[in-house]
Amino acid sequence: MNLSHDTVESNVRLGPYTHANGDGEELMAVEPLVLADARVQAELAKLELPEGSVVVVDPWIYGKPARLPARSVGRVGRSGD
Questions:
Q1: What is the number of H-type helices and E-type strands within the chain?
Q2: To 10 degrees, what angle do helices 38-47 and 24-36 make?
Q3: Residues near 9 by Cβ (< 8 Å), separated by ≥ 6?
Q4: Which of 2, 13, 54, 67 keeps 20 to 30 A from 75, CA to CA?
Q5: Residues sharing a CB contact under 8 Å with residue 3, sequence separation 6 or more, in sequence order
């Protein structure tokens, strides 16, 4: 999209493993869902985080590395890492 000229410069269908970047509203909506997931909770328990640790969801919104299967990719880090 060329906003200066109000024209569409490219409009192509992307493959099944390509998605648009997440926007802030979407990312904020996803975070509590990720943290509530039983699989995520199980992995967090394995970390044995100290009391009071704050877990932050850091989604990888730039696609996926070629070596990984087609799925959403993210990482979980400890505050201060």
A1: 2, 2
A2: 70
A3: 1, 2
A4: 13
A5: none
- 36-53 tens-digit pLDDT: 999 999 999 999 999 999
Domain ranges, ordered by start, for the chain: 24-78
Euclidean distance between CA atoms 31 and 22, whole angstroms: 12
Give the integer Cα–Cα distance in Å for 12 and 39. Answer: 36
Token pair of 74 as six digits:
């993210």
pLDDT digits (tens, 9 = 90+) for 12-30: 887 776 666 677 888 888 8
pTM of the model: 0.53
Contact 35, 55 (CB under 8 A): yes
The token pair that represents 44 in the structure block? 């967090």
